[in-house]
Amino acid sequence: MIFVFLGPCSLISQDLCRFCQGLHINLVQHSAIVLLLSFAFRLYILGSDVFSNRRVPSPSLIWIICLSSLALMAVPIIAYYVVQTEVTPEVLKRFRLEGYMATNYNIFGGTAEILLDALGCCLSPIVMTLIFIVRRTLIKRIAKAV
């Protein structure tokens, strides 16, 4: 897979563009995880029949949980940045991309690339499914309380 950087990316640097692309992809995943944590926390607060011995965590603990989830997302960002390589001039010429900055992301390369793709492919649907399940349970709990 070849990514072609157009516009301002061509003026700044290829490394910054690769970093921004990796950051964007992983922040999208991180937002889904934070959304899941948000719904789960609301369900935890409202669910006295499920969590009978619950106590409300402090705001600092909630911040620590959110920041630790962000720190965990740093690993894929770094791995995604590292596995991208320069595109050879022959490939650029073959695809008529001379004059553009391009990066090769070899998804069929080594073990790191395959594990990175597998992690993203497995986690995305699981997190989205959990969001819908927890959200539906939360809506039922709120409807029952009203």
From TrEMBL:
Any one annotated GO CC term: membrane
Residues annotated as transmembrane: 27-48, 60-83, 114-134
Subcellular location: Membrane
Principal place of residence: membrane
UniProt entry keywords in alphabetical sequence: Membrane, Transmembrane, Transmembrane helix
Record membrane topology: Multi-pass membrane protein
Pfam families tied to this protein: 7TM_GPCR_Srd
Superkingdom per UniProt: Eukaryota
Family listed: Belongs to the nematode receptor-like protein srd family.
Name of the protein in its database record: G protein-coupled receptor
Organism field: Pristionchus entomophagus
